[in-house]
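Help needed: design a sequence for this.
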């Protein structure tokens, strides 16, 4: 995933948590907020949060890497100019890659982060 597509600063996370809308399924929660600042670029920014309750460091980092790869491969389907945080719930640790991808796309669709068919991105 590109550096400009990462949400890293604590204040950015707090802003999304405070002012964003949320959607969820059994494995993931997503918080979404529109980004108005032109200096940050036109793409989306993703933050990932995995609690220690989900597993040890090896499990948490594997989940982060898989999520980043799923988002990277599906980035053309995502709506631009949004900040979103994907929170991983405990059941996600047991998912295979294909099931995880399906679940992530489902929660992104519920949060209206996927570009609708026939609609240009943006």
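Sure. Designed sequence:
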């Amino acid at each position: 995933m590109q550096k400009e597509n990462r949400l890293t600063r604590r204040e950015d996370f707090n802003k999304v948590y405070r002012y964003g809308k949320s959607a969820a399924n059994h494995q993931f929660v997503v918080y979404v907020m529109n980004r108005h600042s032109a200096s940050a670029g036109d793409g989306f920014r993703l933050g990932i949060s995995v609690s220690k309750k989900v597993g040890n460091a090896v499990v948490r980092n594997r989940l982060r890497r898989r999520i980043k790869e799923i988002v990277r491969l599906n980035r053309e389907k995502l709506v631009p100019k949004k900040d979103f945080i994907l929170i991983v719930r405990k059941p996600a640790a047991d998912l295979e890659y294909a099931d995880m991808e399906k679940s992530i796309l489902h929660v992104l669709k519920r949060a209206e982060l996927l570009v609708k068919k026939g609609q240009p991105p943006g």
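The CA atoms of residues 21 and 36 lie 16 Å apart.
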